[in-house]
Design goal:
The structure is a single chain. The protein is α+β, with helices and mostly antiparallel strands and about 575 residues long. Among the domains are: about 200 residues, FAD/NAD(P)-binding domain (3-Layer(bba) Sandwich); about 150 residues, no CATH class. It is about 35% helix and about 20% strand. It has 18 helices and 24 strands. The strands form seven sheets. Strands 8-7-17-18-19-16-20 form a seven-stranded mixed beta sheet, with helices on one face. It has a five-stranded parallel beta sheet with strand order 10-2-1-14-24, covered by helices on one side. Strand 21 and strand 22 form a beta hairpin. The longest helix has 22 residues. The N terminus is likely disordered.
Length: about 575
């Protein structure tokens, strides 16, 4: 018990830091107040992904002069659509692809608000371009039975922990044919997270991996496959790496979504067309109407500081030259691996949170698009290929698109787009016996096709169905294997300590990205957290700039079940006393 109390003491100090940061700008407010006297309104946003565009949106609405600098020639970052070069004929657009399936889940709240504020030329808003996904299939290989789960409301009791555990266990047992013992154990471990106080979540479960929390190492291979690594619809939640806290957040959010509690839309939704056409292009058009300027082919390389402020930035142009960027406020909304390269000694000395980012890890998750000669007989929803070594999740995306595929994109012979996320690039595949990183682009496509076919009946994906394929253009071939120009943050155990706030200790520097600390009920890498981080960066600029009153930048907090409130209060007292969670018996 003494050991537990000692560890709890260190963790409590970390938790206090979490609480102070979540309440507002904290001690750095005075540094920004000094900058406010300049009265500047020019904002440079580096990065045109979801976070950068969100910050630009919020600031432009409040009268700031915003310029967005983007290293590519198109906006959208990882959310943008990819088009197969020279594939459109007869007036059709090029064959469209995506980095992933672009899920907009019911537990998102910040992103849907932004979507509702983007008008469409013909009336309505971008939010109206979302289509509900009504089915999820858990496909199996090796003769194991696949399961299709309708996305309909589920109403378990949340008021009694025992009943909730039994309900969750029964669902697992019935759906995945797990043993009663393993189902009950997993359900209990989930409910422990649902009913843990915030202090324990950030002081204990943040430092325990999901794999260890659910005791996957001592369970059956089926348990490990299903609950310790196979079901990965949300790619950021890698079970062997992510913390119990982060994964618990994800499962709790999904629970609320499928029970219809506090949701903002269907439990699972995708856009009814390629993401750029359904969302990014209208967004950019709206931002331009608000006065936002876009400077493409500009990659920020340096931030120059003096007297605790960024005085200018230097960007590399597409032609290899350099360009000076002057602004009053700077928002770094580039991916975490690129942001770290900007932090020189002066910036790291000014804000230790920037230096801590060196410990963050990045991972790969990229999409392969298969264009089919006729629609495949797969569900109009996500298919988790449970036994695939590369952790595949596919969706017949164009089944949910509004425009007729063959008449709109490609050469008229491709009638459907099957989008596949590849989340594991380090495990050997079934065709070549090599990890995806060590394959060629063509081998990746063939391997993914083979792994999907192993999970579906041969008649569903015959080779004759394949028209062509396109692998995410960020994946390129090099002498030592594949390279990825678009890695993203890996939510790993303890990584919360390494993530910075949107408001930095540097007088006019703000951060936006899914790697920035966010304070809704989820903080794993996603479009939702990128959107929230963009809002928090914009709020920081607004507070620091001062001047006439302007509408605050709102952030939305996710749903919290009132039935869990008492259990969390009890756990808070047990945490204070150095006691484990009431349900945490260690068995």
């Amino acid at each position: 018990m003494a050991e537990a109390a000692e560890g709890a003491g260190v963790s409590r100090r970390r938790v206090l830091g979490y609480g102070a940061a979540g309440l507002g700008l904290g001690a750095v407010r005075t540094r920004h107040a000094a900058a406010a006297g300049r009265g500047g309104r020019r904002v440079a946003v580096f990065g045109a992904g979801v976070a950068g565009l969100t910050a630009a949106h919020e600031l432009a609405e409040r009268g700031f002069e915003v310029t967005v600098y983007e290293r590519r020639s198109v906006p959208g970052g990882k959310a943008r659509s990819l088009y197969v070069p020279h594939s459109g004929t007869g007036g059709r657009r090029g064959l469209p692809g995506e980095h992933g399936h672009r899920g907009v889940f019911g537990f998102y709240h910040n992103l849907p608000d932004t979507l509702r504020r983007i008008p469409l030329a013909g009336g309505g808003t971008v939010h109206g371009n979302l289509a509900a996904v009504t089915r999820v299939e858990y496909a199996r290989s090796g003769g194991r039975g696949s399961v299709t789960v309708p996305q309909r409301p589920w109403t378990p009791s949340l008021s009694d922990a025992g009943l909730l555990i039994a309900s969750l266990a029964g669902t697992l047992e019935e759906t995945f044919r797990l043993t009663p013992r393993e189902s009950l154990f997993f359900a209990r471990q989930l409910v422990i997270l649902f009913t843990s106080c915030r202090e324990r979540l950030f002081g204990q479960w943040e430092y325990v991996s999901w794999w260890d929390h659910i005791r996957a190492g001592r369970m059956s291979p089926e348990y490990q496959r299903l609950l310790g690594g196979g079901v990965q619809l949300i790619q950021a939640l890698r079970p062997t790496t992510a913390s119990a806290r982060t994964c618990g957040q994800g499962f709790e959010a999904v629970l609320y979504a499928v029970t219809g509690r506090g949701t903002d839309g269907p439990a699972d939704g995708v856009f009814d067309g390629p993401t750029s056409e359904a969302w990014i292009d209208p967004w950019v058009a709206h931002l331009r109407s608000l006065g936002v300027r876009f400077a493409y082919g500009r990659s920020v390389e340096r931030l120059e500081t003096a007297a605790g402020h960024v005085v200018r930035a230097t960007a590399r142009t597409a032609r290899g030259g350099t360009e000076r960027v002057d602004a009053d406020w700077f928002v770094a909304a580039v991916p975490s691996d690129r942001a770290i390269r900007l932090w020189d000694g002066a910036l790291r000395a000014a804000d230790q949170r920037l230096a801590a980012m060196d410990g963050l890890q990045q991972t790969w998750c990229s999409g392969v698009q298969f264009f089919l000669r006729r629609p495949a007989e797969v569900v109009a929803g996500h298919v988790a290929h449970i036994d695939s070594p590369w952790k595949l999740v596919s969706i017949g995306q164009s089944k949910l698109w509004r425009a007729p595929f063959a008449r709109t994109w490609g050469d008229g012979r491709a009638q459907e787009s099957l989008s596949v996320d590849v989340s594991d690039w380090d495990t050997p595949g079934i065709l070549y016996g090599r990890p995806a990183r060590q394959c060629t682009r063509a081998e990746v496509a063939r391997e993914v096709w083979a792994q999907m076919r192993a999970h579906l009946e041969a008649s569903v994906l015959p080779d004759s169905l394949l028209h062509s394929w396109y692998l995410d253009e960020a994946i390129t071939e090099g002498g030592d294997g594949l390279r990825n120009d678009d890695p993203y943050l890996l939510n790993s155990a303890g990584s919360w300590d390494l993530r910075p706030e949107a408001v930095t200790a540097v007088g006019n520097l703000f951060l936006a990205g899914d790697w920035v600390r966010t304070y809704s009920n989820i903080d794993f890498t996603s479009m939702e957290t990128a959107n929230e981080a963009g809002r928090r960066a914009a709020a920081g600029v607004l507070a620091a700039a001062g001047g006439p009153d302007r509408a605050e930048v709102r952030t939305f907090k996710g749903y919290e079940a009132p039935e869990f409130a008492l259990a969390k209060e009890v756990d808070k007292e047990r945490w204070r006393l150095g006691l484990p969670h009431l349900l945490d018996t260690g068995r």
